[in-house]
Design goal:
Length: about 110
Amino acid sequence: MDCLFCKIIAGDIPSAKVYEDELVYAFRDIAPMAPTHILIVPKAHMASADEVTSENSGYVARIFEVIPGIAAAEGLTNGYRVITNCGEDGCQSVKHLHFHLLGGKKLPDQMA
Ligand code: AMP
């Protein structure tokens, strides 16, 4: 499949891994928008949040289960933001579901 994040998960494209288990892979964003900017992705391909179903929602649950540990390891003791962009209006550029974990500074309070 011609998917950038599937290739990263497979190790065909290098990434700065911060966490991995059987369901989830997390790595540093190549163009960070905050001192900590990590992408957390399901190892199964799903294009976006719009493709989450009762069949694959376990991947999403696992992502949210591991976020507190990743945030703690990054020293995000004062909070952080988790975002997923979906589709054209959401400005999603990579069509493999991913959650941005942003922190390390006070983030802008305006989302749009
Ligand atoms: P989105 O715009 O929500 O689809 O986010 C895609 C994110 O992937 C952007 O923040 C990019 O900087 C990031 N990105 C694109 N290519 C890579 C890569 N090879 N390694 C790490 N992050 C990447």
